[in-house]
Amino acid sequence: MRIAQIAPLAEAVPPKLYGGTERVIWWLTEALVDLGHDVTLYASADSDTSARLVPCADQALRLAGINDHLASTIAMLRRVMEDADKFDAIHFHIDFVHFPIFMNKPDNVFTTLHGRLDIPAFWPAFEAYPEMKLVSISDNQRLPMPNASFVKTIYHGLPEHLIPFNGQSGEYLAFLGRISPEKRPDRAIEIAKRTGTKLKMAAKVDHADRAYFESEIEPLLDDPLIEFIGEIDDRRKPEFLGNAKALLFPIDWPEPFGLVMIEAMAAGTPVVAWRNGSTPEVIEDGRNGFLVESIDEAVAAVERLGDLPRSGVRGAFEDRFTARRMAQDYVNLFETARGRSAGRRSEPLLLAH
């Protein structure tokens, strides 16, 4: 198939620093190429891909210091529109800004929504364009918009060899993510103290959360069990997750997916997660982790981690959360929507300039 992937211009694909959506787009694009499809990626010029790259900004806009991305995004959509008839599937990852332009081409246009949808200010856009096909990243993500035009839920996946399996359990609990009220790092700290287990916190502190960190979390760090590492990059993540006894995911918000859970699973590290948002869809309780609803339950779960073979945790990842599986799910969706039989190939395209 001839497939267009349209990425946000805030970050490169893959991102140089932070950027979960752009990282998923990269994994998906590379997996589609590996499956033999003719893929074109519309993204910033500093992106790195095996697909055909159409540069739509000189560099990632956030790192260039550009805060308003609308003008560059609209310019990118003009380029996509000029090439639209040459693709079998056009796959957007930019929320809803393209809806007015592509509303008359709904048959092969798909939009994956990567963020939370429980914000009423977003809803009018989806209500006004019911012809646009939407893909959710968890069934729970859909709940605030039950009447929206969702055609499929497709879970994220990552490359099988990105994070190596570590069959040996470590001695510390891991917290990985942002320091923010909805991520509940305070819960992670309390669990570590009550179980007498070391906690390593690899977490970034955004400017918006600085006051919360200084007033609520920093005073809790003065304990020999708690080690605050700060933000880590992708090179350090496999070792950090692989050497952990478990990942704590004590969220207090409707998480749409939660990439860190499957990153931990890839390493064979089980996840202790609050039953919120997507976690019941990702965590198979008693196989790749435990679902809890209180500190007491989390403490009990940590004490039961020895019941979970790390090979079984890795197996749960391989069964459901690889990039190849994600890519094949999208191909199946595209082919079904277009009425194509699986495996049909098309001639390479020549893009408009």
Structural topology:
Elements: E1 2-6, H1 20-34, E2 38-43, E3 52-55, H2 70-83, E4 89-92, H3 99-102, E5 109-112, H4 123-128, E6 133-136, H5 139-142, E7 150-153, E8 172-178, H6 185-195, E9 198-204, H7 210-217, E10 226-228, H8 237-242, E11 244-249, H9 259-266, E12 271-274, H10 279-282, E13 289-292, H11 295-303, H12 310-320, H13 323-338
Parallel strand pairs: 1-2, 1-4, 2-3, 4-5, 5-6, 6-7, 8-9, 8-11, 9-10, 11-12, 12-13
Helix pairs in contact: 1-13, 6-11
Task: Write a short abstract of this structure.
It comes from Sphingomonas sabuli. With 353 residues, the chain is of the alpha/beta class.
Task: Describe the protein in words.
- The chain has 353 residues and is α/β, with parallel strands linked by helices.
- The chain folds into two domains: 2-158 and 323-338, Glycogen Phosphorylase B (Rossmann fold, 3-Layer(aba) Sandwich); 172-318, Rossmann fold, CATH 3.40.50.2000.
- It is built from 13 helices and 13 strands.
- It has helices at 20-34, 70-83, 99-102, 123-128, 139-142, 185-195, 210-217, 237-242, 259-266, 279-282, 295-303, 310-320, 323-338; strands at residues 2-6, 38-43, 52-55, 89-92, 109-112, 133-136, 150-153, 172-178, 198-204, 226-228, 244-249, 271-274, 289-292.
- The strands form two sheets. A seven-stranded parallel sheet has the order 3-2-1-4-5-6-7.
- Strand 8 (172-178), helix 6 (185-195) and strand 9 (198-204) form a beta-alpha-beta unit.
- Helix 1 crosses helix 13 (323-338) and helix 6 crosses helix 11.
- The longest helix has 16 residues, at 323-338.
- It is globular and about 60 Å long.
- The two termini are 21 Å apart.
- Residues 340-350 have low confidence and may be disordered.
- This is Glycosyltransferase family 4 protein.
- Keywords: Transferase.
- It holds the Pfam family Glyco_transf_4.
